Amino acid sequence: MSYDDDVNIPKEKDEDGKLENVMQLFPVHNFAINQRIMPKCMISAILEPNGQERLVMVSASNKVLVKDTEISLHIPDKIRCIDAAPLGTKYDLIIIGTESQVIVFDVYQNTTVFQRDIPDGVNCFAIGILADFKTSLVICGGNCAIWGFDPTGKDVYWTVTGDVVNAMCLCDYDNDGELELIVGSPDFEIRIFKRDLMRTELTETDAVIGLAAVTNNCFAYALSNGTIGVYKGEERLWRIKSKNIATSMLRFPSDNLMTAIWNTGKIDIRQVTTGEVATKDQPQTSLNIVGACLASLTDPNQKAIVIVTGEGKVTGYELRESKELVDRTPEIIREFGQKKHNLMMELSNFEQEDQMTEAEKGKEQRIPINTVVNSLYYVNKDERTLNLVLEASNEVCIRAVVIFAEGMFEGESHIWIPTKIEGNGDKVTIPLIPEKDVQNDLHIKALLGQIDSAKLHVFEMSRLIPQFARFAFMSNTEDWEKPKPYVEFALKQRNQRVSFRGN
Asked: CATH number, domain at 374?
């Protein structure tokens, strides 16, 4: 499917800069399929020459449904995903991934173009001209392996990856004029393949569940913890985290903007380079969104964002210019009011400081002005933990520590409060247990103050955990048990038919 040319979202302001004419999402379709729809099983396609674009979905009864037609395909194997693309034709062919095979079906000719067995099944598709291939490939992501078939069904591409393939997309990652294959997996890794060779790995903080090319050399990703973001090459341009899960990410309405559809029905249109929200739509009630796509269901020249719920309710949104000027005055007043409040609070603190006597300052038990907090890591071999040590100068007590880190703690934050203060309390040790050997950033807030002080001083710092920080060298003199290598597997043959060979 081709994308529209670059579309700028205009904003018209009056002379005072208070009124804006902005683009907004307007609902244009609202109907029901009366069937439960499977996740990742909803697309739009033109299924006949000069035909109208139609929605294609998979019902909970494992049938492929084509909207506004009597067409329905029953597949014996459980369907996991579907896609559509013109493979040597002037219209789209339906591509179906099941638990054991890939099927390419021509609805117009009512025939199966090809059908190939895939061990462990197909989880997702990427369709396009990969690297230096001359024709589009149907690339199938399975269990640790990736297959590619040409329009005739010939097996022309195969490679392996480190884990199950959850998501794939094609993107000119290195801006060399050829498309690379981007692969996302549950092991937190995004892998980039140049033809059949892995070029690089990008480590994230949770399982990768979605990938989409949003510009010629930028791709968006979605994680199972609600994070979405954009990479340009190996540089992550931005990321945000939500309590909801991103269902789909679309290259719409332009190369400067991308659209994210969340499982609750919320739609965000964001700047690709910064993540700033250009416009959004939030439904009144939470929806169970299982799929989204771009489709021209009524006007061939106008794309709409079409979303479908698990219950089969379909809603379409078009991006249009608002008919009324939006008054931004209350928003501007609110922003400046908040800035004024913050400045007045700071000014009040300075005034109180000037008015206090030395005796009053002594009662507050303030910490010395040159106090600093130092940090270091070390591996506790007995407890098998990575310990973070914080030490305050001038013997100032560390009353509490708050740590923020993605993918390390439940809720991505950890609060440490000592149950018993030993000595001056100026040194604390906090055990960390990273689940994976990946580089991570710790954002630390240490709260310092005298033991009986009611006011605490906040020291903020950022510390990087190296990739293999929890590894430590073991000397020969240390008492440790050497691992014993062995292999364990289920034997389904008689002992007489098995021979062992090893060193």
From this structure: 2.60.40
How many CB atoms within 10 Å of residue 67? 17
Ordered strands of the 208-213 beta sheet? 208-213, 218-223, 227-232, 235-241
Listing DSSP states for 190-206 in one string gives: EEEEETTEEEEEEE-SS
* pLDDT for the residue numbered 388: 95
pLDDT tens by residue, 43-60 = 999 999 999 999 999 999
Q: Are residues 265 and 399 in the same domain?
A: no
Q: Is residue 248 part of a domain?
A: yes
- In angstroms, the CA 16 to CA 13 distance is 8
Could you tell me the residue range of the domain that residue 422 belongs to?
Answer: 369-465
Residue 16 clears pLDDT 50, i.e. is over it = no
Q: Looking at residue 57, which CATH number applies to its domain?
A: 2.130.10.10
Nearest residue to 181 (alpha-carbon basis) of 143, 142, 230, 129: 129
Please answer whether residues 85 and 127 qualify as being in contact, where contact means their C-beta atoms are separated by less than 8 angstroms: yes
| Domain stops at, among 322, 343, 377 | 322
Residue 360 three-state SS = helix
pTM: 0.80
